[in-house]
Amino acid sequence: MDLEGATYLYTLATLMVTFAGFSALLFVIRQAAGAKLSLLDRFIVRNIMTYVFVLTAAALLPVLLALFDMREGSIWRVSAVLFALPMLALQTTYSVRRRRLVGEGAPLPIMAVFVVLGSAVTLTMVIYLLFSVQYGPAVYITALSMDFFTVVYGFLNALDIIMQQPTAD
Fold first, then answer.
1. Does residue 169 sit within a domain?
2. Would 42 be classed as within a structural domain?
3. Which of 1, 109, 121, 126 could form a disulfide with 84 if both were Cys (CB 3.0 to 4.6 A apart)?
4. Which of these, 83, 56, 68, 85, lies nearest to 139 by C-alpha position?
5. Residue 109 covered by a domain
6. Residue 70 in 3-state DSSP?
7. What domain count does the chain have?
8. pLDDT per residue rounded down to tens, the chain (169 residues)
């Protein structure tokens, strides 16, 4: 069974893993330049890795489910739920987790895009696919792509903040 959108999903998974490695590498380079890793640095790296691997798993999940000869509509519904549960948990608890570890909440742009927009996209996708599978691949892949780009946006904003920190004590 050829799953609609499989090539895009594979490409997206590859892009996501590459981004995760690149983002972690930037923190290693920063540390090699003399900066101590702060709690915020560690929090961001761990979050980026967690989000990206949830997104990568979500990109591979529909293709995996297709191997079990599931009906295509079921593939998108099951994938939507299995993707949305951990993703929404990460998105909606981001500010609390950050405040608990770092002592301060996220800046407004990160909250607006990374948390609010990301959560809205994920929730809209899962609700749509639970009630209709028309355009299932397009809806799922669009949400996955948008969530990935909210993570990239969050990372770039966090990078701006981190780069303003002193590099040596």
1. no
2. yes
3. 126
4. 83
5. yes
6. coil
7. 1
8. 589 999 999 999 999 999 998 888 877 777 777 777 788 888 888 999 999 999 999 999 999 999 999 999 999 999 999 999 999 999 999 999 999 998 988 889 889 998 999 999 999 999 999 999 899 999 999 999 999 999 999 888 888 877 776 665 5
From 154, 152, 169, 159, select the one nearest 29 (Cα to Cα). 159
pTM for this model (two decimals) = 0.90
Distance CA 142, CA 157 (A): 22
Element (H, E) at 119: helix 118-131
58 Cα distance to chain centroid:
10
Inter-residue contact 80 to 140 (CB < 8 Å): yes
Judge whether 82 and 105 are in contact, CB under 8 Å.
no
Is 164:107 a contact under the CB 8 Å cutoff?
A: no
* Residue-range definition of the domain harbouring residue 73: 6-163
